[in-house]
Design goal:
By secondary structure, the protein is an all-beta fold. Helix content is about 0%, strand content about 30%. Strand 22 and strand 23 form a beta hairpin.
């Protein structure tokens, strides 16, 4: 996994990784002679995985196999390509698929699962099309363990967006995509309501209301960019969340930018301090209005995480990961150039699998998620129906 510099290809600023190729490929085994890529569910195939979470350096690993409406779990960190999963959640077995297992929602079913995170001693999943978050108090260690708590709905069987209302509320969700937990605080990218919700403490009751909203002036509004032009406070499609030295970071894919606050906001609708991917808070065009990307532009960034001094962003529609190194102040990051790129040979390339070819260990195709666990980088390479694991 190599970061190619923006100016000097002969001497790239390498991340200290064991290889510039993915060490492990999970998911479909695609060969040159294949005409069609298989998407039928098995213990080792995936269909458009949007997220993955390695809970410790040795495992377990959970993957949101989004198109099959299920989670796949590996007891230990996989050590070989296309290794079959040990567990499945959301379907009766490894060979079935369908929203809510082709039935009504339950404590262990999904409809388009999109985000996963470690949540205290347990696990949390963004169950997007059921308009809810599912939380397990302990990490599941078997197939189809029922969740302990639900947010966005008052129970485990309802699944209407905003509980059937045209307005949002502090205790409702509409297509929540991403989820993040840090020191007791829970963060949810409530994408369809164009907002980010924060719970000051891990909820203990089903449907518990959030404490803080970002992206909207209040808990009932849900207009795109707050009903006006884009600002430092507004959002269009927020998707993933992390903290970079205690500064909140949110990907706003619909505005083709990453928003960074100084610290963690405690007031509703607090504006961010800087954005990456755009020159200012009011510009939102993909790749800053031109077809080809640059070292400072983004096109629908979905995933984000940190490794050491680096902020790594899944620049999804450009089929690449971008990395920014820490500055003396986050204010110096406003519109800053990225310091490295992964998945493309230069900052001005954007084609899937580099040249629209078959996927390789160095290529990406609409990568939706990136998560780091100590020496492991796990990338949800959705367009290639696979998950990649690199080693630091």
């Amino acid at each position: 996994m190599t970061l190619i510099p923006k100016t000097h290809i002969e001497k790239p600023p390498y991340l200290p990784l064991s290889s510039n190729r993915a060490e492990i490929i999970l998911g479909n085994n695609i060969t040159p002679e294949q005409i069609a890529i298989p998407i039928a569910p098995t213990p080792s195939t995936m269909f458009g995985p949007r997220a993955a979470c390695l809970l410790s350096p040795t495992g377990p690993l959970w993957v949101a196999d989004t198109g099959h409406h299920r989670l796949l779990g590996w007891r230990n960190l996989p050590t070989k390509d296309h290794q079959p999963a040990d567990w499945v959640m959301g379907q009766p077995d490894f060979f079935h698929e369908g929203q809510n297992a082709k039935d009504t929602p339950r404590k262990n079913t999904f409809s388009v699962p999109t985000g996963i995170c470690k949540c205290g001693d347990g696990l949390a999943v963004a169950d997007a099309w059921n308009h809810r978050i599912l939380i397990w108090y302990s990490v599941p260690e078997d197939s189809n363990i029922p969740a302990d708590l639900v947010l966005g709905q008052s129970n485990f069987i309802d699944n209407q967006s905003n509980r059937g209302s045209q307005q949002a509320a502090a205790n409702t969700l509409h297509w929540p995509y991403g989820i993040f937990y840090y020191q007791g605080k829970l963060f949810v990218a409530d994408t369809g309501n164009r907002r980010l919700l924060i719970w000051h403490q891990l909820p203990t009751e089903n449907g518990q209301p959030a404490d803080v909203v970002l992206g909207q002036p209040d808990m009932i509004s849900r207009n795109e960019n707050g009903g006006g032009s884009p600002t430092a406070a507004s959002m269009r499609w927020c998707h993933d969340i992390t903290l970079w030295e205690d500064n909140l970071v949110v990907t706003d894919a619909g505005n083709n930018r990453v928003m960074i606050w100084e610290g963690i906001p405690t007031e509703n609708n607090a504006p961010c301090a800087v954005v990456l991917g755009q020159k200012n808070f009011n510009c939102v065009e993909l790749n800053q209005g031109v077809y080809f990307p640059s070292c400072s532009s983004l096109s629908m960034p979905y995933g984000v995480d940190i490794w050491g001094d680096w902020l790594i962003v899944a620049d999804t529609a450009n089929s690449r990961l971008l990395g920014w190194k820490k500055r003396e102040s986050i204010l110096l990051l406003q519109g800053a150039d990225a310091d490295g790129v992964i998945g493309q040979d230069s900052f001005i390339s954007k084609s899937e699998n580099k040249n629209f070819g078959l996927p390789t260990r160095e290529s990406l195709n609409w990568c939706y998620g990136v998560k780091v666990c100590e020496k492991n980088v796990v990338v949800s390479d959705s367009g290639n129906n696979r998950v990649l694991i690199w080693k630091f």
